[in-house]
Amino acid sequence: MWLKALILIPMLLVQIRIRCQTAQEWSAEKACLEVTRPGSFENQNDPTCGSYVFCYMSNGSSMALVFFCTENSYHDATLGACTTKKPEKCI
């Protein structure tokens, strides 16, 4: 089945590869390397805004954890918290 999909839609495959490369450019771990104190930040890999990244320091190293908002709530980067109001940029 995969083979048929690859043969029938080569342009779609190219688009998927490009999209994956773009998504891989940003990572929670890399973003947290730039943080000097603990806090929650936008998860740029989540266009639905249903999750966020929490950065913290442990033994001198920055760490990243991805947390999920409760059902029907969205992370608001301005507030740094989950809220029931869906930010405009979220899908």
From TrEMBL:
Domain Chitin-binding type-2 stretches: 29-91
Domain of life the protein comes from: Eukaryota
Keywords on record: Signal
InterPro entries: Chitin-bd_dom, Chitin-bd_dom_sf
A Gene Ontology cellular-component term: extracellular region
Signal peptide: 1-23
GO molecular function: chitin binding
Protein known as: GL24893
Name of the gene encoding the protein in the UniProt record: Dper\GL24893
